[in-house]
Design goal:
flat
């Protein structure tokens, strides 16, 4: 396929598993970010404060900015982004945690 026949759009999938070592600090950081956001309407601010206070996964999602991942990449303009966070049980030694399971590939295939 020539360059003219291929799409200019690329879907970049990233999956991270992080360990929250200090949920209170994470929540405080999210609350500071909410308080410093001048464009956030009061109703949304109240909702966001409640969400990040009740769930550290929500606090993390509020602090992670997918726009910053590609903002400095030359020749790239972000068109759309979505992200979510959830609490999980994690065992890095479990075969259930195969990073390539979803796309059907493995290290050797790529």
């Amino acid at each position: 396929m020539s360059a003219e026949e291929t799409s200019r759009f690329v879907r970049l999938r990233v999956e991270l598993v992080v360990e929250v070592e200090d949920g209170d600090e994470l929540t405080k950081a999210a609350l500071r970010r909410i308080a410093e956001d001048p464009e956030l309407p009061d109703a949304e601010r109240t909702h966001a404060e409640g969400a990040v206070t009740e769930d550290t996964a929500e606090a993390l999602a509020y602090l992670v900015d997918p726009f910053s991942l590609v903002g400095g990449v030359p020749g790239v303009e972000l068109q759309q982004a979505s992200w979510a966070s959830e609490r999980i049980d994690y065992d890095p030694d479990s075969p259930d945690w195969d990073l390539y399971e979803e796309d059907g590939g493995d290290d050797e295939d790529e």
